[in-house]
Design brief:
Layout: H1 53-72, H2 85-90, H3 133-138, H4 184-187, H5 265-272, H6 315-319, H7 373-383, H8 399-414, E1 428-432, H9 439-450, E2 453-458, H10 459-463, H11 467-482, E3 487-492, H12 506-519, E4 530-536, H13 544-548, E5 552-555, H14 561-573, H15 581-590, H16 596-608, H17 621-628, H18 637-650
Parallel strand pairs: 1-4, 1-5, 2-3, 3-4
Bound molecules: adenosine-5'-triphosphate (ATP) and magnesium ion.
Length: 654
């Protein structure tokens, strides 16, 4: 400052002059009250804002020397008790008042932004560097306009856990964790909105990473999160995003959900969440029976329905009796779902029937009323199915259908007390779909699940001897079923019992009349413990009277690709043929539209092509390719469409 005589006068008489700035720290006498609003302006008598070039360069040089070390040195968190926000924000030490008035024209990040608990967007003394809080924190006050008027002379210090009035609601004070030195460049930009960090990854997962998804196997936890990148916005990391919904899919071995025709989204949606629920339906290649049969033949002398072994009654069997009539059954508990799923429990053993009565006999020893004993004997010997038990897992695919059958039919029949709402659980179900799609197989499976004796009839067989004879056999079958509960009466090709719509032959009518009477319960079908399963590949041939007699009507669609693969593998394994993965995949692809029955025929055809009977070697892929020329799918696309249409109109959906 150049001394002149005017300067001898008292200060306040000094003429307005420009200040020759040599320090920006005004002496106490010059400390200004902050003007309301707006940025602080310093107007001293001698202040003027143009300084000589020499002075400016001296200043720059001095500051450059003085602070070059600071800029290069790592950021050290200011010690406790240093200057708090107040100092910085207001250029007046310890002044707790927030920066008065409206925010400065643009949201400057205050010195403390970037520290959890700092007031975001607050008017701040940080000047010139565009909201570079921490960098600003490193720099001396000359760079802060706010401090030009009495700011601290040293880098501001932050009280650990600072919680002064400047903190916006909801922010927690910095807890003393040293902040990593911020990337200076990143701090030169205006603070991004909360939740967005620098160009690096979004910091949005909890410190411990995501918990493994329940049920779908523990997802590998994501790598430990990097140290929280300093968010230039100065805001604490946003709350973690909600965990992603676990993936939805059936857990048992079939195609992707919905791949099976007619699978209702409702049921799928209802079941998607039950992880592992359908695990019990997983299709397991059967243990090839010694004689190569698809199922180990049961010992027919012990035939009790599906080849059950007789076993002395246990206490549980005594206690039951719901379906036992005179023949108490072990109380079946419904299969346990979910991860703790037990392997499908052995279906109950049926109580032994004294050998003297053999075969299918009335528990009380009395033949059912109105039924000729000879006919009864015929029915018993011809109709009782002594095939091996069929578990859900023996039926490839059909996941949603199996679940519907179990929930709407098996459970209510097995556990009436658990279903008080529906005192009369359905006792009639119609399975319709293409030939060989597995309708009879499912009927047998129902008998196994119910621990029931299985009586099998074929519409064609009943109709063959004439309607009158057929009607008599039908009546005997129902009576036999009634006196050996629980029993499943499986009537295949139901449509054959009805007169062909076009010829209206009266004879067949008698058969249909008998069928409807029996379905109405007049010959035992309504009795407890008798389930009638009708199957047809011509549902449209059923008239309304017959259709309405079946409380449930389910579409048995052709197997999807995974199911075809499982059926092929099982059939070929029984012939000692093992295909490579690519060969099996090609075969599955090449048998699109085949039913389970047709796949079995294909394998038999291939085996036949693999050498003379008795000299056969296991069929090879080439034999299968050759067999494809002879065995093809019977159901036409038009026919398949008609099934879907009928299902939409009359099906129970699943
Ligand atoms: N989903 C499946 N899983 C395993 N095997 C199957 C499946 N579908 C059909 N099969 C096999 O195909 C053959 C025919 O099955 P099934 O008799 O149940 O067909 P269907 O629908 O009753 O035929 P139809 O309409 O001619 O009476 C059986 O050997 C059965 O084991
Ligand atoms: Mg059948």
């Amino acid at each position: 400052m150049h001394w002149t005589p005017e300067h001898a006068q008292p200060l306040n008489q000094w003429p307005e002059q420009h200040l020759d700035v040599s320090s920006t720290t005004p002496s106490p006498a010059h400390k200004l009250e902050l003007p309301p609003g707006g940025r602080q302006r310093c107007h001293y008598a001698w202040a003027h804002d143009d300084i000589s070039a020499l002075t400016a360069s001296n200043l720059l040089k001095r500051y450059a020397e003085k602070y070059s070390g600071v800029l290069d040195s790592p950021y050290e968190r200011p010690t406790v008790g240093g200057y708090g926000d107040a100092t910085f924000l207001n250029g007046a030490k310890g002044d707790p008042e927030p920066w008065p008035g409206p925010e400065p024209p643009y949201p400057l990040a205050s010195l403390h932004e970037g520290l959890p608990g700092t007031k975001s967007g607050s008017g701040g003394g940080s000047g010139g560097l565009g909201g570079s809080p921490v960098l600003a924190g490193n720099l001396p006050e000359p760079l802060y306009a706010g401090n030009a008027c009495g700011g601290p002379s040293a880098a501001p210090e932050y009280a650990a856990g600072y919680g002064g009035g400047y903190l916006a609601q909801g922010y927690c004070a910095q807890t003393g964790a040293a902040l990593p030195p911020p990337p200076p460049a990143a701090l030169l930009q205006p603070p991004p909105p909360p939740g967005y960090g620098p160009s690096g990854p979004l910091y949005n997962y909890p410190a411990g990473g995501y918990a493994a998804q329940p049920g779908y196997g523990a997802l590998p936890p994501p790598p430990a999160p990097p140290p929280a990148p300093y968010l230039t916005s100065g805001l604490p990391a946003p709350t973690p995003l909600p965990l992603p919904a676990p993936p939805t899919s059936y857990s048992f071995q079939t195609a992707a959900p919905g791949a099976e025709a007619g699978v209702s989204l409702k049921r799928k949606a209802a079941d998607d969440g039950a992880e592992g629920r359908y695990r019990k339906y997983v299709y397991e290649p059967a243990k090839a029976a010694a004689d190569g049969a698809s199922y180990p033949a049961a010992d027919s002398s012990e035939c009790r329905g599906n080849g059950f072994r007789a076993k002395p009654l246990g206490a549980a069997e005594e206690a039951s009796g719901k379906y036992g009539g005179g023949v108490p059954l072990k109380v079946l508990s419904s299969p346990v779902y979910g991860p703790q799923l037990e392997p499908f429990e052995k279906f109950p053993e049926r109580a032994p029937v004294p050998a003297s009565r053999g075969g299918f006999a009335v528990p009380s020893g009395e033949p059912p009323k109105g039924v000729d004993p000879g006919t009864l004997e015929l029915v018993t010997s011809k109709m009782v199915d002594c095939g091996p038990p069929v578990q859900w897992a023996d039926v490839a695919g059909q996941g949603a259908l199996k679940a519907a059958l179990e929930e709407e039919l098996v459970w209510p029949l097995l556990r009436p007390p658990a279903y008080p709402v529906n005192p009369r659980s359905p006792r009639t179900v119609l399975l319709f779909g293409p030939r060989g799609a597995g309708k009879a197989l499912l009927g047998r499976c129902l008998a196994t699940q119910l621990g029931a004796t299985l009586l099998r009839l074929r519409g064609v067989t009943l109709a063959a001897p004439g309607a009158a004879e057929g009607a008599r056999l039908l009546q005997a079958a129902f009576a036999a079923a009634r006196c050996r509960p629980p029993a499943v009466l499986l009537i295949s090709e139901l449509d054959a019992l009805l007169p062909a719509r076009d010829d209206g032959a009266a004879a067949a009518g008698a058969l249909q009349v008998q069928l409807l009477a029996c379905l109405d319960g007049s010959c035992g079908a309504g009795a407890d413990g008798v389930l009638v399963v009708g199957t047809t590949s011509r549902p449209s041939a059923l008239d309304e009277a017959t259709r309405r007699r079946f409380a449930l009507r389910f579409y048995v669609a052709l197997p999807d690709s995974p199911a075809r693969g499982q059926i092929l593998q099982r059939a070929l394994a029984q012939q000692g043929c093992v295909l490579s993965e690519p060969e099996l995949a090609a075969l599955v692809q090449g048998t699109q539209g085949f039913s389970g029955g047709e796949l079995g025929q294909l394998c038999q055809q291939a085996a036949a092509g693999a050498g003379l009977p008795g000299l056969q070697r296991p069929p090879s892929y080439k034999d299968l390719e050759a067999a494809l020329a002879k065995v093809g799918p019977r159901a036409s696309p038009k026919e398949l469409d008609s099934f879907v249409e009928w299902d939409k109109m009359y099906g129970s959906g699943h």
